[in-house]
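Review form for a predicted model. The reviewer records the input and the model, then writes brief findings.
Reviewer: anonymous (R2)
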Amino acid sequence: MMTLALAAAAGCLALDGDRILARDMARAWPEFTVAEETALGYAPVPGARRIYSVAELARLAARFGLAAAPSQAVCFERRMTALTREQALKAMHTALAVPEARIEILELSRYPVPEGELAFPRAGLRTPGRGTPDNTPLLWKGTVTYGNSRRFAVWARVAVRAPIRLVRAAVPLRAGEIVRLEQLRVEEGEGFPFAEWEAVSPGQVAGRRPRRTIPAGSAIPLALLDEPRDVERGDSVQVTVAGAARLELTGRAESAGAAGETVVVRNPESRRTFSARVAGKGAVEVDPGGRER
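Model under review:
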């Protein structure tokens, strides 16, 4: 215990690499005249210390043929530094790659970090959930890469805002009906730049079907949109009747379906309906044994 107390009082020597080398030991023990690059052991992990006791130093002296060893312990620790907001902001802006974004750091990890390359990757930024208030802090996890590609975890709580585009319904979008471009409008605003739950481009909405009616003026949740089916109700479809003689006619779909599903088709001449299997976009096939209704 006395050795540890003496070492703590004397302070620890800072290390920059992953190994404790002879040149590091010579800083505390000038008589340690061993080739500078000789490795004596591994550097401690960030925040820990490696203390060479008096007995260990005596064994080193005997190993390298030195006349005497120090009379008190020698302490090493990895060089650490304070993480600054300026460093964090620079790394965050680099990761976002959105020049117009405003990042406010509300809280930053306060513990010292090893010297190395700081990164706050985009994947480490928690995306706010739908309906989350704009002023809710978001957790952003980062790392400091040091030594031989080792990583030290850091974190921050941030608010991120940037100019964004939102697609809104210009008129009510009826459930189950294909959305047309003229039913949409685009508004400029400000918000989280990577929100994934609402449409930011008309192309994300036009041609798809809402599962429920979306009121005029509302933003459009992508989760409520379904891809168009191969046959929609009201479509004109090419009907093929396969048999001894191949017959083709044009019908009108009375129900909707995707490839492989069964839909009801109306014969425009007889006005009767029959069942058909969807063969592809705008095309259906009929079993020749089937009957009109």
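Findings: The radius of gyration is 35 Å.
Further findings: The longest helix spans residues 85-96.
Recommendation: see findings above.
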